[in-house]
Design a protein that fits this description.
This protein has two domains: about 220 residues, 3-Layer(aba) Sandwich (Rossmann fold), CATH 3.40.50.11720; about 180 residues, Rossmann fold. Helices cover about 45% and strands about 15% of the residues. It has 19 helices and 14 strands. By secondary structure, it is α/β, with parallel strands linked by helices.
Length: about 425
């Protein structure tokens, strides 16, 4: 009881804080705006549709990439169901609000008892599936009360999480017991859940492996990029400011190397920063599309549009994935699926695939520009090693597929 009161108080406090933050933070402002009159919007949009419904929830864009293969497989196996997709973060909702396989896409309202009751009464899902995490107590409790089957998939747990704290973990563990079944990524997660008494769990792996394999199998060439690719090309994706500086230092001192860079944020500010870093060595992708600046081969191509990154990685001799100098690296598997070595920053310890790639000699962690230079030079100058990495990368990817099939099989047996 005390834990529930504390949690409710934290939700109220969070609401106050984010309202204040919305006065000067664009993302917080989107968070508030997206939830304005959310229930009347849901009611008007669903409009008493009587179809059976499945609800997928994702915290943000990264979790959507884990949910996507399951959504696609669910649609194929259960075509009569309508799909509700929700996001907690604006970065997920704004990018995927028009996702064609979802019948309805909404923001997730703040988790309070009243909101949870209202939400579930409007959604009326037969089954709810949560990608990786985002545990909301009142919403999970309400689903449980209504007899809705609730599944967590691509989940990963660590010893230092509150669920496993002997002193204060009791209340948090209650959230996990609301799930009818939990598909985890690895043996350690399975062990942790077993140790606190959970039984309906299974090691399935990460559904993103299924997703990237499907993307790679459907690869279509990028004719505007191909003429500028060499055996010393770095493709860098989802980069932030610290990543950009390190890459720029290498490119500006190694004229034989080429860079194709897709920043995480395609904003005027980020593009301006990149153009200053690379001065007269760059061309924007949209300029290539318009036929400009093609008379001289550019050393750097700046991707100033979205939707190309998963294809671009195929063109790299070496790939670089950003975020490792901030909150955490972005999707490494999109690069590895093409048999490419991948370089990233030091903030990767929460990402199982990063640890795996380091262990397999496919991934390379760097802390500064000097280490980046050493890694890039070593790989560029060793084609035999690149070939070995390619074989190991593909083996790693294909040995870890199949999570989606396991999830769909459980749904077929329990829906």
């Amino acid at each position: 009881m005390i834990g529930t009161v504390v949690y409710w108080s934290l939700m109220k406090m969070y609401n106050i804080v984010i309202k204040f933050a919305s006065l000067f933070n664009p993302k917080a402002k989107q968070w508030i705006k997206g939830r304005k009159k959310i229930f009347s919007h849901i009611q008007a949009t669903i409009n008493n549709d009587s179809s059976q419904r499945v609800w997928f929830h994702c915290a943000s864009l990264g979790e959507f990439e884990q949910a996507r293969p399951v959504i696609e497989a669910f649609k194929e196996n259960f075509p009569k169901y309508k799909i509700i997709l929700t996001f907690f973060s604006p970065s997920g909702y704004e990018v995927r609000k028009n996702y064609n396989l979802a019948d309805w896409v909404f923001y997730l309202p703040l988790d309070t008892p009243r909101n949870a009751r209202q939400l579930i009464s409007l959604f009326k899902p037969t089954i709810a599936l949560f990608a990786k995490y985002d545990f909301w107590y009142f919403i999970l409790r309400e689903l449980n009360k209504k007899g809705v089957k609730v599944v967590l998939f691509s989940a990963i747990f660590r010893d230092n999480q509150l669920f496993f704290n002997k002193l204060i973990g009791g209340w948090y563990r209650r959230l996990l017991y609301f799930f009818d079944y939990i598909f985890v990524q690895d043996k350690n997660s399975f062990r942790l859940l077993r140790n606190i008494g959970l039984k309906n769990i299974e090691i399935a792996g990460d559904t993103r492996f299924d997703r990237v394999v499907k993307i790679a199998q459907k690869f279509q060439p990028l004719p505007l990029i191909e003429p500028y690719v060499s055996d010393k090309t770095i493709v860098a994706g989802s980069t932030w400011e610290d990543d950009d500086r390190i890459l720029a230092e290498y490119i500006n001192t190694n004229p034989e190397a080429q860079l194709i860079i897709a920043p995480h944020e395609v904003t005027h500010k980020s593009l301006h920063r990149l153009t200053k870093l690379f001065k007269n060595k760059y061309v924007l992708y949209t300029e290539l599309a318009e036929g400009k600046k093609t008379q001289i081969a550019p050393q750097v191509i700046i991707i100033n549009t979205i939707g190309l990154l998963a294809k671009l990685y195929r063109y790299g001799t070496i790939t670089y994935v950003g975020g490792g100098f901030g909150h955490g690296i972005h999707n490494l598997l999109e690069a590895v699926v093409y048999g490419k070595p991948v370089v990233f920053g030091p903030n990767h310890n929460k990402f199982k695939e990063a640890i795996d790639l380091l262990d397999h000699g496919i991934g390379f962690c760097i802390h500064d520009a000097q280490e980046a230079k050493e890694v890039f030079d070593t790989l560029f100058n060793n084609p035999v090693k690149l070939k070995e990495i390619s074989h190991e990368a593909l083996r790693y990817i294909y040995n870890n597929t199949g999570a989606t099939d396991k999830i769909i099989r459980w749904i077929k047996n329990n829906l």
